[in-house]
Design goal:
8 helices, 7-stranded mixed sheet, 11 strands, 4-stranded mixed sheet, single chain
């Protein structure tokens, strides 16, 4: 991991270095795949196969080598999700979920704040449903929490859930929220949008999101369900910011 950048930013660099490769084997090349994955750290190439009536398949690789083979129908389901996977004849639910897991720890480029908020809601909802452990959250400035106080007060009211919020001191939060506020002015907290939920020690519900602002309203980042990565992020925040 890079030593020239603070930990949260270096974790994003680490994921950015791990580009995934999709090799699409099909009778015809479909440029839509490459275009649709342009904002993800995925390189798409095509290998033409004889037209034998099937949709073809996709080989997924990363820096460690071969990861999986998935059907093109599953790839299309990811790009244009059906309302419900149950009952679809051409997409197996287990295959679809396995494919989503392949994009865990994949860098997403040029995310906007609306996309980040949508992903953040998923992590907040998980913390609410399980209601134990710690959740660490930073939306760069404390000002961003002015409209989120109700949400985070509800989380903090869960008796076994500890809520830690980090941000630049551009707003003074109320004292009666039950939230532990960490007021910081450095570039790491000011540039990175993050959430890390430790799952109350349960590995299968740990999750995190890290995204660094690259432009006025764009971010590069990733989400992860890897317990070791979530533990690293949570431990770093505790040790560095109290």
């Amino acid at each position: 991991m890079s030593s020239s950048r603070p930990f949260l930013k270096a974790k994003i660099d680490e994921v950015a270095a791990d580009e995934k490769q999709f090799v699409v084997y099909a009778a015809t090349a479909d440029d839509d795949f490459a275009e649709r994955f342009a904002t993800r750290n995925v390189a798409v190439t095509h290998r033409l196969l004889p037209d034998v009536g099937g949709d073809g398949f996709v080989v997924v690789r990363d820096r460690e080598g071969f990861r999986a083979v998935v059907g093109i129908a599953t790839l299309r389901a990811f790009l244009t999700p059906p309302v419900s996977l149950s009952g679809t004849a051409d997409v197996d639910t287990a295959d679809f979920q396995a494919f989503l897991a392949l994009l865990d720890d994949t860098l997403f480029r040029s995310m906007n704040r609306r996309q980040l908020l949508a992903t953040s809601r998923e992590i907040e909802d998980r913390a609410w449903r399980y209601g134990t452990g710690q959740i660490h959250v930073g939306f760069q400035s404390l000002t961003a929490f002015r409209t989120q106080v109700t949400v985070y007060r509800l989380l903090a009211n869960r008796p076994q859930l500890s809520v830690h919020v980090y941000g630049r001191p551009e707003w003074t939060p109320p004292d009666d929220t039950g939230i532990t506020w960490h007021v910081e002015s450095n570039d790491e907290i000011g540039d990175v949008w993050f959430l890390a939920y430790d799952g109350g020690g349960e590995d299968d519900i740990k999750c995190a999101l890290l995204a660094e602002q690259r432009g006025p309203s764009t971010y590069d980042g990733f989400w992860t369900y890897d317990p070791a990565t979530v533990d690293q992020v949570a431990a770093y925040l505790q040790q560095t910011y109290g």
